[in-house]
Amino acid sequence: MGEPYVHPEVLVSADWVQEHAKDPKVRIVESDEDVLLYDMGHVPGAVKIDWQGDLQDQLVRDYINAEKFAAICNRTGIANDTTVVFYGDKSNWWACYAFWAFKLFGHKDCRVMNGGRKLWIDQKRPTTTEVPHYPTTDYKVAGANEASIRAFRDDVLVHSKAGKALLDVRSPKEFTGEKLHMEDYPQEGALRGGHIPGAKNVPWSRAVNEDGTFKSADELKAIYEQEIGLKTQDDVVAYCRIGERSSLTWFVLTYLLGYPKVRNYDGSWCEWGNLVRAPIAKGA
Amino acid sequence: MPAALDAIVAELSEADKQERIELLIDFAKNLPPLPERLAAHKDAAHRVEECQSPVFLFVEVDGDRAEIHADAPIEAPTVRGFVSILVEGLNGASVEDILSVRNDLIDRLGLPEILGMLRVRGLNGVLHRLKADLVRAVNARADGDSTSAPNP
Asked: What predicted TM-score, i.e. pTM, was given to this entire model?
């Protein structure tokens, strides 16, 4: 047996979810890259919260405000003391993103179902297309937790100049600047390629196994500590292209390895690579 | 625009949001499997790079008709559904008709409304790629090469 995760309670198994399917204090939330997946069949009792349609403001590039967040919770039957368990496709990318967004609004009890949608389906656990309805709640947003887990571009510039820990979790080709998703992704595109000076490249996917579960604490430490040189007390900022992949890395560092100071820069490369005079490093 | 695609546009654009989601899922489920001769050629040359999920397109020309086959994983039902719409709507249509399909097809299918703007970007890439492959196939024929499909 290796070392346990620092906050093992945030990770629940598929068995746990199945046992708590009817627990009124638990709400299962599916959050996917592919928005059709929920409607094709989901964990019985699960509600859908879409990172794009629900959690992002449709006008300004930002998250929804507290009022809209409360409305989502009320609609999905989430109260302030509900245990919210996120799961989704792509090894829980979007589940972690939704988890992070819930933490921005200070929701207390958030968890992730290890293995996500893929493992649930692979293990042939039950799914349904039935959309559940829960009694409306009266959610009171606890208050912003933003400063401790979200970094903005000015913070990142200071952070980079100070030589503090900065993780770029995109693919190696995006990191070196060789690859840019320009022509067909104009809204996600950046005008310049490369990375933020001082950033180290640790693709997000290194934190997960083939079956979608998270790697063990020992394996994670081998990557983030032995290889990259992070230390528990480091002030860490993680980014990717729009902040989704880096929310998984944020989750891993914060909860599985217990780093107290990790922020996600959700502006990420789509903001940085378009900023006039923002410093950029190219190559490996 | 080919009549078959026209009919799909009419069906989807008249559906409400939930019906549209279900129709797209039906398309994803009903994408015919690749013919055996093509299934062995799911390689980089036929992969649509713009899509994060592995999407494979095969465009061949026979006379002035185009033959279109495609594959995408069921775990990515959005792109698989869209690819299925293209196969059903365009397979067997004339080259000219396919090239006349307007690039705002995704808007006319009402997909941004159910998918959000960020998600439809990759889908646009599939349509662009299909047209580019078609032009290449036509040119290859004109150059005396009988087919652009992979020769086993």
From this structure: 0.91
Given A39, A50, A184, which is nearest B128 (Cβ)?
A: A184
Mean pLDDT computed over B31-39:
94
Tokens of B149: 């499909």
Distances in Å between the Cα of A12 and the Cα atoms of A19, A28, A67, A101 are 11, 11, 29, 19
Closest Cα in chain A to B123: A184
Instruction: Scan for tokens 């992730």, then name that residue.
Output: A112
pLDDT at A255 over 80: yes
Q: Which of A118, A183, A187 sits opposite B118 (nearest CB)?
A: A187
| Chain A residues closer than 8 Å to B75 by CB | 34, 37, 89, 118
Residue for token pair 């964990």: A43
The fold adopted by the segment(s) B3-142 is Sufe protein. Chain: A (3.90.1010)
Closest CA to B71 of B38, B44, B24, B115: B38
Q: Which residues make Cβ contacts (< 8 Å) with residue A267, sequence separation at least 6?
A: A152, A153, A156, A239, A243
CA A193 to chain centre: 23
Residue B109 CA to residue B105 CA, distance in Å, equals 6
User: Which helix or strand (DSSP H or E) is residue A156 part of?
Assistant: helix A153-161
Q: Which residues contact A48 (CB under 8 A, 6 or more apart)?
A: A29, A30, A31, A38, A39, A42, A131
Q: What is the DSSP string of B35-51?
A: PHHHHTT-SGGGB-TT-
Q: Cα–Cα distances in Å, from A282 out to A62, A172, B133?
A: 28, 11, 33
Under DSSP, is residue A279 helix (H, G, I), strand (E, B) or coil? coil
Give the integer Cα–Cα distance in Å for B40 and B34: 9
For chain B, the domains span 3-142
Is the CB of residue A122 less than 8 Å away from at least one CB of chain B? no
Other beta carbons within 10 Å of A187 = 11
Catalytic residue IDs of A? 240
ipTM: 0.85
Cβ pair B23, B12 in contact under 8 A: yes
Instruction: Give buried/exposed letters for A26-39 (b at 16+ CB in 10 A, else e).
Output: bbbbbbbbbbbbbb
Quote the mean pLDDT of chain A.
94
Distance (Å) of CA B34 to CA A101, A110, A193, B27, B122 = 41, 43, 37, 15, 21
